[in-house]
User: What shape does this take?
Amino acid sequence: MSTLSTQHAPPAAPSQIRTVAWASAIGSTIEWYDFFLYGTAAALVFDKQFFPALDPVVGTIAAFGTLAVGFGARILGGLIFGHFGDRIGRRTTLIVSLLVMGLATVGIGLLPNYDRIGVAAPLLLVLLRVVQGIGLGGEWGGAVVLTLEHAPDKRRGLWGSFPQLGTPAGLLLANGAFLACSTLLDRADYLAWGWRIPFLLSVVLIGIGLYLRVHVQESPEFVERVRHDGPSRAPLRAVLVRHWRRVLLAAIILVGNSAVSYVFMVYMLSYGAKVQGLSKPFMLAAVIAGTLAWLITSPLWALAGDRFGLRDIFVYGTATRIAWSLVFFPVVDTGNRPLIIGYMVVMGVIISMTYAPVGTLAAGFFPVDVRYSGASIAYQIASLLGGGITPLVAASIYAATGTSWSITAYTCVISLLSLLASLAIPRE
Assistant: This one.
């Protein structure tokens, strides 16, 4: 397997590299904000809004089930946007993906609940979640590829980490918005209409994201390839026929990162509040503290990857994350608030160690003519198997076993598979 190849395109100007990197980071933040709003709402309010007739535990499982549906749709989005991104260009598809995602999010904010329209409410919720997933499925691969194809070879780790900043930044915005609404409003108003405010605020973010993306230039590598060889005729077919082994390996490498991240970001909100009796505002604050550490340290790990090798940073980070995951739930089970906050901060630093390099590593598995498609499909498969079903599996196996150790074992086994697969990544 080769590392990231180039088309010997003329290097982009430093000012354009910075513009593309920040536009990708901010655009990715907006899309992840939209996506994480759903995850936070699924953990905190959707069981009461859309599944009130169910037992509380079953309602939580149903809410996380609709969360998983969006991840399945992300694979479809990766297929669609990856195909057109490799055929007509990265920039245009990223603009469309932002619009698709944002409009679906606003739709969720306007959706009547079960008490008003009955069973149509959860059905429409699932439909909008599917549309969200399609939009985000085209976002990640395009943002990473567009940034990398502008970046100089010796700084691809650093610039490739900028789209990755969108994940913790979007999570911070989503959880911060929910924390503000739940703190400033009384419980009745929050459950009646206050939870909708973060979804409706997406209108403002859509405008910001579109402004940034229409001012970004197309990838110089993509332009150079089209100039020499013409547009790719069937990039999706080429990925599935010629590069499926790379897709599979990349997905296995990425799946552990996704599983632990979603336990950290989504399931922990439900577990801490509903199982341990910790307040929802405190659990949101704990996740926010850990996510802030994740955001701040990501560029530092990316710089370390450029110097010492992205592969080694990822491998050592994965091993550290497995060890730290063993005490994840025992720490929360203590109910000790300072200890929980401290643990979440350290977990954020460890997650950033494995998350910062994954964009560059995943894109490096594929040649430029199928890079958008290949990276998108691999990442979205990993997200479904790791992040999409993990909160659902976690809630289900806890209901079946009554112990958090079963969840710990589940995430550690997945992470171990990713660790073993990551040893196949060649050193730069």
Remarks:
- Residues 56-88 form the longest helix (33 residues).
- Confidence is low (pLDDT under 50) at residues 2-8.
- Residues 2 and 365 are 7 Å apart (CA to CA).
- The radius of gyration is 20 Å.
